[in-house]
Amino acid sequence: MLLAYSAWPEIEAWLKHSKTVVVPIGSNEQHGPTGLLGTDWMCPEIIAQAAHDKAPDAILVAPTFNIGMAQHHLGFPGTISLRPSTFQAAIGDWVSSLSRHGFERIYFLNGHGGNIASIEAAFSEIYAEWSFAEERCPFMLKLVNWWNLAGVEKLANAQFPTGHGSHATPSEIAVTQAAYPHAIKTANLAPRIAPTGPIRDALDYRARFPDGRIGSDPLQASPEKGRELIDLSAEGLLKDIQAFAAEVQP
Amino acid sequence: MLLAYSAWPEIEAWLKHSKTVVVPIGSNEQHGPTGLLGTDWMCPEIIAQAAHDKAPDAILVAPTFNIGMAQHHLGFPGTISLRPSTFQAAIGDWVSSLSRHGFERIYFLNGHGGNIASIEAAFSEIYAEWSFAEERCPFMLKLVNWWNLAGVEKLANAQFPTGHGSHATPSEIAVTQAAYPHAIKTANLAPRIAPTGPIRDALDYRARFPDGRIGSDPLQASPEKGRELIDLSAEGLLKDIQAFAAEVQP
Amino acid sequence: MLLAYSAWPEIEAWLKHSKTVVVPIGSNEQHGPTGLLGTDWMCPEIIAQAAHDKAPDAILVAPTFNIGMAQHHLGFPGTISLRPSTFQAAIGDWVSSLSRHGFERIYFLNGHGGNIASIEAAFSEIYAEWSFAEERCPFMLKLVNWWNLAGVEKLANAQFPTGHGSHATPSEIAVTQAAYPHAIKTANLAPRIAPTGPIRDALDYRARFPDGRIGSDPLQASPEKGRELIDLSAEGLLKDIQAFAAEVQP
Amino acid sequence: MLLAYSAWPEIEAWLKHSKTVVVPIGSNEQHGPTGLLGTDWMCPEIIAQAAHDKAPDAILVAPTFNIGMAQHHLGFPGTISLRPSTFQAAIGDWVSSLSRHGFERIYFLNGHGGNIASIEAAFSEIYAEWSFAEERCPFMLKLVNWWNLAGVEKLANAQFPTGHGSHATPSEIAVTQAAYPHAIKTANLAPRIAPTGPIRDALDYRARFPDGRIGSDPLQASPEKGRELIDLSAEGLLKDIQAFAAEVQP
Amino acid sequence: MLLAYSAWPEIEAWLKHSKTVVVPIGSNEQHGPTGLLGTDWMCPEIIAQAAHDKAPDAILVAPTFNIGMAQHHLGFPGTISLRPSTFQAAIGDWVSSLSRHGFERIYFLNGHGGNIASIEAAFSEIYAEWSFAEERCPFMLKLVNWWNLAGVEKLANAQFPTGHGSHATPSEIAVTQAAYPHAIKTANLAPRIAPTGPIRDALDYRARFPDGRIGSDPLQASPEKGRELIDLSAEGLLKDIQAFAAEVQP
Amino acid sequence: MLLAYSAWPEIEAWLKHSKTVVVPIGSNEQHGPTGLLGTDWMCPEIIAQAAHDKAPDAILVAPTFNIGMAQHHLGFPGTISLRPSTFQAAIGDWVSSLSRHGFERIYFLNGHGGNIASIEAAFSEIYAEWSFAEERCPFMLKLVNWWNLAGVEKLANAQFPTGHGSHATPSEIAVTQAAYPHAIKTANLAPRIAPTGPIRDALDYRARFPDGRIGSDPLQASPEKGRELIDLSAEGLLKDIQAFAAEVQP
């Protein structure tokens, strides 16, 4: 079920048999000369919708949380970033809203490595309210990056044995190519495999990584490889949320 | 141009000839038994994309700001709301990101009446930084509700002379029907035209408006009427952003 | 009853028969060459006290909330503004204080158009606590601009058929002239009717509106006209708070 | 000069010869069975206006900051308190506004002991911005309680050798009696001199100090004594702001 | 008992017979050419540990809160300061943590005058939650500066009849000399007794007090005098926390 | 050099030849029946001081940041936690203080896994200020967990091939045993190796991990093994900060 495309009585009905919801979460940020600015929020959205296509009654997908923590990419036009503090407050409000309706398992399917620290800190901020109050938190939060779903990293390594890298990777770009073939971009990339290094502020980033990529050769991406990644990820997601829903709390 | 479906060099190129960007902004909240939860963020997104379809080189559309201020709808499952303070902080970060890249005219196309106060307060918070610093703010912000675009309210009144109401209106639902015909919902609505009244907290709201609608009869909506509204709104949007871009600052 | 001029046992006694309190709220900001900096907080204070003079047992007037959201006027000396975020936090604390004592109807009589968005956003922030908690908010908040009290706008239009404008209006200045005749200012105003335009940051404002007025000719103000406005507003206020106190919650 | 009763060109003119402004600051809180709820903001306002009456060209008085930190008095109806965090933020915005206009000496004349810690913390928060930035703060802040003006405490002790106490004191009540003789309250107070003790939360406070007073016998107050206190305080204030204005920064 | 050097079952056992805990709190800031940067957090830590050495079962000492409000010292390298707002938030979290475990008397032994306002404001912020909620706060907070423990100021005045001053005082430096004799510093101080004056931002401070001291001659310090101060303070602390634990709430 | 045991001129001198400073950062939280509550802040402090003992001129050690993010341990007495938001604000103020003095390489040596997300989010919040402002951040931040220093994890695995676990590990307890042999605790632990599982709020945690340990058998700890770990960590730290200081920014 797709939450945004449903009316409220449908969600009320859903809650009678399931307390689990999936939130695709990502970022809108530069992904090199050929990657879409929306790559990081599109990937989890695409995968969640693919899972929904496979088993519409087995998953409830919330609207996509599309702006995350991308301060280091602000040197490239089109990047939109929340400050970590704003991002954490917004995650708190999403969780307050969903838990208020009775959702007890809130699963964030993440598409951006730079989001991880802030999402985990947000979870701790949320849990802390209950911990200080000496009350049991009535819901569980889970963060999973789509590339950590069962088998996905292995597939990506097989598809791209060299030049996968860590930003503007061929795997994430392949996923968006499969979903949006009309928006495939081409460019000459030099060097073919981008440099690597630490991540700090935006100007430092642009000095280290002049075209935005880190360690990747995204020209290896293809819609076919993207389709494989989407299929495997969607299967992994369905299994993972089933396990999450079944998890017993001591 | 659709920002999220572009790569950063394309935005860099855009900025050489235009400093204007449009942000569709809405809310994810109950819209009665037949309205989609995403109605309020879908409408401006649909209209902005329709404008883009008409004149792709005349408009740059940012990703959709899809969660707004909907605290009063929290009594209905599926509603997701930011607190006004979080919402305002997030608007601030969007503006900081876009202005940092050189955008000087940031146009928010809004789909939710409940957002207006918070968006305007956010604008004042942003401007205040410059006002306290005795510096000229290097960008202009504009908020326009899609139903206030030229001619749109008149058309809606002609389409729906009675029962337009103010929440879960036939006009907004018609817009989503035109865009997502597979997601058209039906229900018996009693009374046919919903009651009206003041808006306060969520439980007060649900007591006053038991199925979520305010003053509306959304069963009058149709995809055809939605298409008319979208066309007129898209034209109005293109004209309005042209005027905004041309506005001369004293 | 005037709260600040009472001792606490008097308020305790008041609460036995009424749960309603009126908070005059405004701003301290430039009002052109002839308007007092205090105009916007004086007007609601003057009107509330006039209502009190007419019917002291029918109204409880809180102290005046005298500093509001006036960032756009900071280009003119004497303006004092809260940031919207501070303003909203302060409104929250006022409401927490008053509701804590048992007030269930808190009526803000506003004197500054620039306050409206922030006050409404503050109301939503307050209500949101209850909405997220799934509890009924034990009080109702109401915002009314004094010029929207019954008949007042009509009177002002009759008094000032041209040149009423929207800032440093002859009506608000007339109200202060009636109350503080010793503080009537004169000046040559050129043009006689000030320009109009959008409101943004402080330097933009001063460039557009060099002497601070927007669309108004305040030289038309007189203490007599102010007295008429005060009388009508005071009557309107008494009726409006009676209606508010009588409002039945579903 | 009274800022709120002036127009902006008058403040612009003032700033050509003086950079000093006085902000009366207090609290609206219970003051025992006979003290006005407004006592703590009225006293500095009364004294500042008395100073103004003596020497209108020697002092510029801002509008009164009338709600302070009174959480411990919330057990008594009519008390309105800001949280310390809100209070500090608001002081910051007042200072930003006034310093933005060119005021370099901002003098807070305080009427509430419970405000002192928060005002001092607010000053440090303001200074910290400059200290972290390694820049010289362009203005000086000063906090003076009216009872610490030259000779005032001595006079109060002479007037009220026993039962002065520390809350709802005969001296502060005398000041309000002098200014507002129509609002003098009477009550039987038992014990005649109230108990003393530590200050914590509101319910603890009400348990310790059942009628709100601490250590005081306010029945000794009289308008005549109030007039003496006002006169001496007004003189002290004029001297003190003159000294503050003349203070040379190394 | 030293909390940090205990395991949690030992604290659980402690709470069966005592609800009191002592938090040494200070600052890390310049203390002139011969004073240690850690002086202000070391002094309360040293004294609390000395009290513990005398009567290990009579006192539970929390870890030291070592960074406080020192914005005015930021002109001197090595100073680390929290903003007052951060400091207050952190105190709130400490108190929430300790009270959550059942501590009902939380005693802050302070070593830095510049902390006092912020700590008191933090206490009020904490109490305010209970005051607004109309609930009794289940714990009591107490702030005591070590130099205000019984007899300590008198001893310091006897040891240092001239040149005690108010920052980088011989008494506080003597305390650290007694505890850390290997870290005794020497320097030529000119003038021997430092100047005095008001405290504002960091650059103002450094201009007024070029070597960091205020009114003091720390060369008078000696480990022997420090030992006397520690002994007397430790005795005073033991008595004071005993009295605090025995305090009966009305 | 130990910052807190130095006077400010010594830090001024240090800054002439080095811009690097090390901040030991940890947490005060339960570590099972035999682990000290201070374990997580003691370990980095002990290691930093050991590095200082080896090469006092090669390292400047700041005072220890001893309270971190430990909300999940609040079910066990003695735990003191900051909320993630407070923790991040405090890290920001530490960095602002140190960078203000000219430190350009600020190295956090961390002792608590639960701190990592919040510290990284804090770094991003700090960098974001520069990224939004389009300015180069004048300093670099680095986070290193002591167990990730060169060779340390390998040594710990060799020392404790089974039952190392992830909380209250024998390695961290061994480090504190080496440093504080008088505070070695014993207890019967059943099961000998604690269970593992996810980390959520405090009551969930205590239900899963009844004595506080996760996956560990801390009874294997010994001061001798702790000494080995300290020595290796101290060497690794010295090398790592040397490399950090030498890092060239593009």
Q: What is the subunit organization of this protein?
A: homohexamer
Instruction: Compute the average pLDDT of chain A.
Output: 98
Total discrete domains of chain A: 1
Number of extended strands of chain A: 3
Count helical runs of chain A: 8
Radius of gyration of chain A: 18 Å
**CATH architecture term of chain A:** 3-Layer(aba) Sandwich
Strand % of chain A is 5-15%
Helix and strand sequence of chain A? HEHHEHEHHHH
Low-confidence stretches of chain A: none
**CATH class designation of chain A:** Alpha Beta
Largest interface: A-B, 56 and 56 residues
**Largest sheet strand order of chain A:** 1-2-3
Query: Shape of chain A from CA axes?
Result: globular
CATH superfamily of chain A: Creatininase
* Main sheet properties of chain A: 3 strands, parallel
- Termini separation of chain A: 30 Å
Structural class of chain A: mainly alpha
| CATH fold naming of chain A | Rossmann fold
Task: Write a structural description.
Chain A has 250 residues and is mainly α. Chain A has a single domain, classed as 3-Layer(aba) Sandwich (Rossmann fold), CATH 3.40.50.10310. Chain A has eight helices and three strands. Chain A has a three-stranded parallel sheet. The first copy, chain A, is globular. In chain A, 62% of the residues are buried. The mean pLDDT of chain A is 98. Chains in contact: A-B, A-C, A-E, A-F, B-C, B-D, B-F, C-D, C-E, D-E, D-F, E-F. At the A-B interface, helix 1 and helix 3 of A face helix 1 and helix 3 of B.
